[in-house]
Amino acid sequence: MEKAKWWKNAVVYQIYPKSFQDSNGDGIGDLQGIIQRLDYIKKLGVNVIWLCPVYCSPMDDGGYDISDYYHIDPMFGTDADMDELIQKADAKGIKILMDLVINHTSDEHEWFQDALKNPDSKYAGYYIFKETEDGNPPNNWRSYFGDAAWTRIDGSNRFYLHAFSKKQPDLNWENEELREEIYRMVNYWLDKGLGGFRIDAICNIKKRLEYGVFQPDGEDGLRYIGDWILNQPGIEVFLKELNERTFRPHNSMTVAEANVPEELLEHFIGEDGFFSMVFDFSYTDIDVPDTGEWFHPKKFTVEELRDNIFKSQKMVQGKGWGAVYLENHDQNRSVNKYIPEEDINYYSKTMLASMFMFLRGTPFIYQGQELGMENIRMDSLEKYDDIATKGHYERALKVGISPEKAFELVVKRSRDNSRTPMQWSTGENAGFSNAKTWLEVNKNYKRINARDQEHCEKSVLRFYRDLVLIRRNSKYSSVIVEGEFVPYYTEDVSIIAYLRILGEKELLVIHNYQSKKGTIKIPDGFKERVLGNRELRNNADGQYCLEPYECIALYREVS
User: Fold this and answer.
1) Three-state DSSP class for 43?
2) Are the C-beta atoms of 19 and 432 separated by less than 8 Å?
3) Around 347, how many Cα atoms within 13 Å sit in the side-chain half-sphere?
4) β-pairing, 543-546 with 518-521?
């Protein structure tokens, strides 16, 4: 793997620091807790850690509301702790990615506070303000979190724009001085030895500002903001400048949270693209309607999921490099999303793991995913911390859904499902902390935890370790990393199979995505079993009978 593309051979482990490991007994995860668990991460086989935000923040949106880009929030430790983490991870061959949140800041950032006090200061130009004559908002845009996207400043007819929470005012990227501030900050972190960044909400930085009342798309009288701020013409100028001034000189790994249309994809991830890779949402958000409303969940079939994955893989490999994932801090747990509740078990969990880990692109494993951690259902909305969960619940009430039904619908998609404390052991609070935890520990921790799975040969954890090893350090690594993705269609639409091909090397990966047996025709020569969640059995006349939720990877070399 050439040095310039080192991240192609990466497997990334995402950490939500608040929930990973508490080292000081305050019920909140911290940087020293991560340092204590580096050996666990190393043993998993990954070589990159993506760290969700640990910057100073009031934590209105889990740290994605940054009040100081240069310092670590005391909740997580000190600036010296961050330096120690970078150095100790590097000594174990692990690079650190931080989150880069540059579409907005916290309203408690000193820039915004100065802009509020002095409308004529240079910092007022760092944000998007608009004064109206009649005191009504400049337009009726709805934020991503479900409320109005403009907030009035007390005692005035002056409003500021926020695509997310009202405590997250959007930055004005048209302002050159603001961009210089951003580049200086990014280079500060890269100069410390950071491997790169996961870039949050980056496709929103270019705005098409229009004012007035637009045709509402919901009962609240508001209109989805994305139509005016997602991938707007001219964004490529900002992204090219950002890359050239920061990422490229450091040979950084960058992964953008960017829902990019196909016609723009090469600009984002091609040979001279703005980023190393982008996430694809076509299959991870398959359950969310276009309006984004969690209370109107979209049903999907295995065939639709398969087609979305295949389409994404074929599209991305023609343009550049991609990032593949099943879970992150903004998703519910994948086993609950993709598997019927009655079928959630070792086989279905490992089948999902295989289905995504053999795909083309850099895989991202979210903390606890390697254990098969599951959704939580807390007793009341008050116990949920996630601002988006509460926003979607309020919207559900406004459209006439009963409180009971609204709660059941919204908590299934709640981001807190993935933010519950990591389940290390059967001990107090799952070994996460000896104090009252900031968010409830899932009650199933005595059944699902790392210590038990470490000692169980047939565990989800052991299976993930095998997958990472095969991908990163085996005779099959080159075909998995560099090989072409080729769909392998079957008569049974509940079987998801595909090929990875590199020259004479071919890998066939098969997944029986159903609770009954299935049959697939296997071409001649695929005799070598790479990995599976059941034992390889003899097949007759090229037909292979798959057990429920069986997965298997087979290899051949053709001359």
Assistant:
1) helix
2) yes
3) 19
4) antiparallel
CB 534 within 8 A of CB 345: no
Residue 436, CA distances (Å) to 13, 28, 57, 432 in order: 26, 9, 22, 10
User: pLDDT digit string (tens) for 416-466?
Assistant: 999 999 999 999 999 999 999 999 999 999 999 999 999 999 999 999 999
Give the closest residue to 501 by CA, choosing from 364, 360, 362, 363.
360
Separation between Cα atoms, residue 458 and residue 378, nearest integer Å: 30
Rounded-to-integer distance, Cα 51 and Cα 198, Å: 9
Backbone angles phi, psi at 410, to 5 degrees: -75, -40
Q: 300-331: string of b/e by CB count within 10 Å (b at 16+)?
A: eebeebbbbbbebbeebbebbbbbbbbbbbbb
| pLDDT tens-place string over residues 181-237 | 999 999 999 999 999 999 999 999 999 999 999 999 988 999 999 999 999 999 999
Six token digits for residue 184 = 């200086």
Please name which of 156, 149, 97 lies closest in space to residue 128, comparing C-alpha atoms. Answer: 149
The model's pLDDT over 326-354, given as tens digits with 9 standing for 90+, comes to 999 999 999 999 999 999 999 999 999 99
Concatenated DSSP letters of 329-363? TTS--HHHHHS-GGG-SHHHHHHHHHHHHTSSSEE
Q: Give all strands (DSSP E) within 396-549, no chain letters.
A: 484-488, 495-502, 505-512, 518-521, 528-532, 543-546
Q: Which amino acid is at 30?
A: D
Which residues, 6 or more positions from 483, have their beta carbon under 8 angstroms from its beta carbon?
360, 500, 501, 502, 505, 507
Q: Where are the beta strands (DSSP E) in 382-439?
A: none
Cα 18 to chain centroid, rounded: 16
User: 97 — phi, psi (to 5°)?
Assistant: -105, 135
Please name which of 282, 194, 270 lies closest in space to residue 239, comparing C-alpha atoms: 270
Q: Assign 469 to helix, strand or coil.
A: helix
Catalytic residues: 200, 257
Domains of the chain and any CATH numbers: 12-105+176-466 (3.20.20.80), 110-161 (3.90.400.10), 483-557 (2.60.40.1180)
Picking from 366, 388, 553, the residue whose alpha carbon sits closest to that of residue 471 is 553
